[in-house]
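2024-03-11 09:14:02 DEBUG pipeline.ingest accepted 1 chain
2024-03-11 09:14:02 DEBUG pipeline.ingest length=358
2024-03-11 09:14:03 DEBUG pipeline.predict start
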Amino acid sequence: MNKIEGIRTTPVLAPLARPLRNASGYIERFPLVLIEVVTSDGVSGHAYADIYFPELLPALDKALHGLVAMVRGAPLAPRDIHAALLRRLRLFGTKGVLGVALGGLDMALWDAYARSRNEPLCATLGAAARPQRAYCSVGQYNASEVVEIAEEALAQGFTGLKIKVGFPSLAEDLAAVRAAKRVLGSRCALMIDYNQSLSVAEAIRRCHALDDEGLVWIEEPVLADDLTGCAAVAAATRTPIQIGENFHGPGDMRAAIAAKAMDFVMPDAQFIWGVTGWLEAAALARMAGIEMSTHLFPEASSHLLCATPTAHWLEFMDVTSVLLSEPFAMKDGMLTPSTKPGLGIEWDAKVVEKCRVA
């Protein structure tokens, strides 16, 4: 029986083609911990976990090793391991760095499990591989800067673009949206993301003013855990409201659905507790009739959307391609999951070594 033997981790700062400006500040290199779960049959499971702050990389690294210490010797059965970890962590909780580690580890375990079956993850989940509609996700750019961003998205073949807003004034938000729309026209959809930067009253005012701009969605206008506030904005706005990247496990999504806090939903594969948590979230979205998109992690997300009944959009923010030995299978704005066993993640050892954090 194939069992969990241990874990190898590599903290890195991944170079970005363009620095990311968001509500947390300015990110020039993306902090990641590359994960390799080692099993008794010699199969390794590859994944990664991200954390926005380099200062927290050591904490994430140690959390991953601590979780594996709790399940070392267990059979390679991702659902059973996930359930066992939730039982062990019940009194402490699974949010913050520990939840990040839980999700990253779960993805690595499923990668190992699919590799042991010699099939892509989507096949392991009972789904056929198919191209997923991807949108280009970028940071915050003003009306003059966003023109170049929109032109690049079109040149790369994307049919969707998401920009971050939340400038000091509504006028600046409108200017950035309209500048992007002038470039994109009808060829490319536009989404915007407020990164939780508004009060409920201000969000209602700004979202109402944006209702006639033809946006696919307005994302996280208020604090993500203020479900009452999210519901108030959603009720007052014609443009669909999108939340979900900050759901820490399927329970948060269940509560958001009950509160009618959004029109669309987009869990993060890591925060939702990996593949195991995603499958539960996808079932919740199907029962509620809510279209479900992804947040980051395009390697895993492309497989997960294939197994998602209400699949909508795949977010493509490139934070790992420089580390990969093979590029993404992107064509005409569509991302197709790897046909290799597991997630299809293979790292370029030389590049990883250059990006390693001591």
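2024-03-11 09:14:41 DEBUG pipeline.report The longest strand covers residues 4-22.
2024-03-11 09:14:41 DEBUG pipeline.predict end
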